[in-house]
Amino acid sequence: MKGQVPMTSREVRFPIPTWPKMFPFETEGIFDTWNKFFNASRPFETLNAPDAVHIPVEIAETEKELLVTAEVPGFTEKELEVRVEPNRLFITGKIYDKEEKGKKTLYTERVYNQIFRYVDLPIAVNPNNGTATVKDGVLNITLYKAQAPKLIPVTTVS
Questions:
Q1: Which H or E element spans position 139?
Q2: What gap in Å lies between CA 4 and CA 24, rounded to an integer?
């Protein structure tokens, strides 16, 4: 046919059905409320929020240790907490704004800064041993590897 171009199956476009909004006032924000409710109890899921602080972490390994380095600018050892489980590491911190004497704050949006980060460790560690130091906004955590499970010989009793 003159003036027509043959179309391949990829170029054929079908109309996409659209479903009418029968009850827009009931369905608009139902999932937003649902997600806010469950994310409030899971703070690690809200790290992608625009006001959340991301803590960059680096994990290195030696023969007997696991070395974790995290950037925590502005935090001191009193404001940080490090918790260790056999396969997971938690870093939390809070900075509260200190009020000066003789100064009355009328309005503020800078009450505190809070960070939270957990890291799944690639190797099991001993949660009872470990050290954490902070200097110049860098948190260095040394965790000692867990001992490999030992085999117990089985004998028969005669």
A1: strand 138-145
A2: 44
Residues 98-126 have pLDDT tens digits of 767 788 877 776 656 788 899 999 999 99
Rg (CA), the chain: 27
Q: Would the pLDDT of 144 be above 90?
A: yes
- Give the CATH class of 54-145: mainly beta
Pairwise CA distance, residues 16 & 89, whole Å:
47
Closest listed residue to residue 54, CA positions, set 113, 122, 141: 113
> Would you state the structure tokens that stand for residue 136, as one six-digit string?
């110049």
146 and 125 in contact (C-beta within 8 Å)? Answer: yes
What the block records as the tokens of 25 is 């006032």
